[in-house]
Each structure stands twice: as structure tokens, then as C-alpha cells.
Amino acid sequence: MTIFNDLRDASVLITGGGTGIGAALTEGFVAQGAKVAFVDILEDDSTALVERLAPSAVHRPLFLKTDLRDIAALKEAASKAARAHGPVTVLVNNAAWDDRHEIGAVDEAYWENNLAINLRPQFFMAQAVAPGMKAAGGGTIVNFTSTSYMLNIGDMPAYTAAKAGIVGLTKALAGKLGTDNIRVNAIAPGWVMTGRQKELWVTEEGLNAMLARQCIKAPIQPEHMVGPCLFLASGASAMITAQTLIADGGML
Asked: What distance lies between CA 193 and its chain's CA centroid?
């Protein structure tokens, strides 16, 4: 793994950091020697991750059990991370819920709940950490979107609407916060083989169809998202902001 020296001892906050892509990101930043706090709603998986990473960590990762739909709880988690590790200078908005849903089955409550997980927290977490980043002289925000909204996929319209919204939010935040030396970028993964995906939706036929469209003929794994995220979080990408990095094996 490439070592980004400016990430050592950095105060990093990751949403959805206990499982899937988020767990890989937590592990990746811990391996850089960063002070990592992560929020997740899944207590058992998150606690197990902390205990697995702690023995070799420069700084023991901090798990903050949080329901991101609760904005007050989200802001308190950001405050706890800052109290434990200093002002957050790297925020990774990773948490998402890619539930499939038919158009006719979506009611107002479902729609609001979906966006309360997939879009609203990204803004309010950025709002919560931005003052500390400004006081620290700058920071980086990495928002996870998805290639799904670019592919005309019809079985998760609320999710793909949120993921498209993240790109707009990324550009708006970058435009507003750039004068405070805060960079904001997004990563759009392809179909990543997380445990949830493999349990619920991956079939041999579906995976082969996706691999046929990728330039790189290998399944995308959670750890493949770590390098792009570390790069965008670090000073190696110092003049990159308001951008979306597509990490899909060349499928698009």
C-alpha cells in the first residue's frame, strides 16, 4: 500500500465504516496511521472490526454507533470524533443503503427514509465538520456516489436519485468551501462485491455480464476503493476538487 505521510495522525471521520466498502476504508486509513473515527448502525460488526484492527494500529479506531437518519445524533458523533482526535480534517461520506424497489411500491415514507440515508447525511456531516476544518487551515471531504445513476438502472430510483444528488452536492460544497482550503470530491464505484451484494443480488449471470462490460476482467472488491479514497484525502491531490473519480474497472 502507498503511504501518504500527511495522513499520519490526521483526524478522519468515516460514515458507514463498519462493513463493506466502509470497513475497507476504515482499515486503509488506520494503516496510514490516522486517527480514525467511524459511525455505523451495526454494533456487532463494527466492534469486531475495531478489535481486529486495534492490535496493529498506531491509533485505536473509534466506533460511534449512530443512526444517520437522526441529524442530532450525527452531529454529536462528529463532535465526539473531534473531541477524541482533534478537528476532523478528513471526512469520508460512505454510508448508503442500496435497497431495490419498484416505482409503484414507493410511498412518501419510503422515499423520505431512502434519501435520509443516502443523501441528507452527506450534507449535514459536511456542515458539522466544516468549521473545524476551516479552523485547522483546511481539509478534504470525499463523498461516495455510484455509477448506478449513469446506467439507467430502473430498480432503485430513490437510491439512484440520491447518488446523482451527491455529485451536485459535491460540486456545490467544493465551490463554497474552496476559499477555506477545503477540497470536496466524489468517488463513483462500479459494482463492488461486498458481503451484502453477494448475499442479496450477485448471480453468476449478472456478474459475468458486468465483467464483459469492464475493461479489467476481475470483480471489483471493497479494498479497490481504498487507494482512490486515500489519494483524494491526501495532499497528493492538492489541486483536485469538485471532481468525480469513477472506479469501475473501465465499465463506463
From this structure: 15
